[in-house]
């Protein structure tokens, strides 16, 4: 798995709208991997990032969710939950592999990466915490990292 200080891979995937999204992680970005749409913890986590999205954007940080499900599942999930940030489809596990995550069970574990300037800045294991507070924790620490004097 990628660790703090490792170079970030450049990735390309389709979002819930079927649009191709390419990320080089030069700009501050939160990329969170989650196992499955419409499940309890994943829904709580997605809603947390959605609720905090204006604050992430205020400090110039992009937010992207990734799971191994297809664009149609992401579209349904985003529509039902009111998610407006990009959910990236990774059905073959290419993004997960690029970040060193296990895909043997057809899904990835929950893992959140903060990336900037082409490298990994932070890695979180939300499995160890309450998913309802995860987005706020990432926001707080990201704000401290990227907002000087704020």
Automatic annotation (TrEMBL):
Swiss-Prot/TrEMBL catalytic activity: a hydroperoxide + [thioredoxin]-dithiol = an alcohol + [thioredoxin]-disulfide + H2O
Enzyme class: oxidoreductase
Alphabetical UniProt keywords: Antioxidant, Disulfide bond, Oxidoreductase, Peroxidase, Redox-active center
EC id: 1.11.1.24
Active site: 42 (cysteine sulfenic acid (-soh) intermediate)
Domain Thioredoxin: 2-144
Family annotation (InterPro entries): AhpC/TSA, Peroxiredoxin_AhpC-typ, Peroxiredoxin_BCP/PrxQ, Thioredoxin-like_sf, Thioredoxin_domain
Any one of the GO BP annotations: cellular response to oxidative stress
Cellular compartments per GO CC: cytoplasm
Record's signal peptide: none
Highest taxon of source: Archaea
Gene3D superfamilies hit by this protein: Glutaredoxin
An MF annotation (GO) of this entry: thioredoxin peroxidase activity
Residue ranges of coiled coil: none
Quaternary context: Monomer.
PANTHER family noted in UniProt: AHPC_TSA FAMILY PROTEIN (PTHR42801:SF4), THIOREDOXIN-DEPENDENT PEROXIDE REDUCTASE (PTHR42801)
Family from the record: Belongs to the peroxiredoxin family. BCP/PrxQ subfamily.
Name of this chain's protein: thioredoxin-dependent peroxiredoxin
């Amino acid at each position: 798995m990628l660790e703090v200080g490792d170079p970030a891979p450049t990735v390309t995937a389709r979002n819930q709208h079927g649009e191709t999204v390419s990320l080089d992680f030069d700009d501050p970005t939160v990329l969170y991997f989650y196992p499955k749409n419409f499940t309890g913890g994943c829904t709580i986590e997605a809603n947390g990032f959605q609720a905090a999205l204006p604050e992430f954007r205020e400090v110039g940080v992009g937010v992207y969710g990734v799971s191994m499900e297809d664009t149609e599942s992401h579209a349904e999930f985003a529509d039902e939950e009111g998610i407006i940030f990009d959910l990236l489809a990774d059905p073959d596990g290419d993004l997960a592999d690029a970040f060193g995550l296990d895909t043997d069970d057809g899904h990835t574990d929950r893992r959140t990466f903060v990336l900037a300037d082409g490298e990994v800045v932070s890695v979180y294991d939300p499995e160890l915490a309450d998913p309802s507070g995860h987005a706020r924790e990432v926001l707080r620490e990201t704000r401290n990292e990227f907002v000087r004097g704020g």
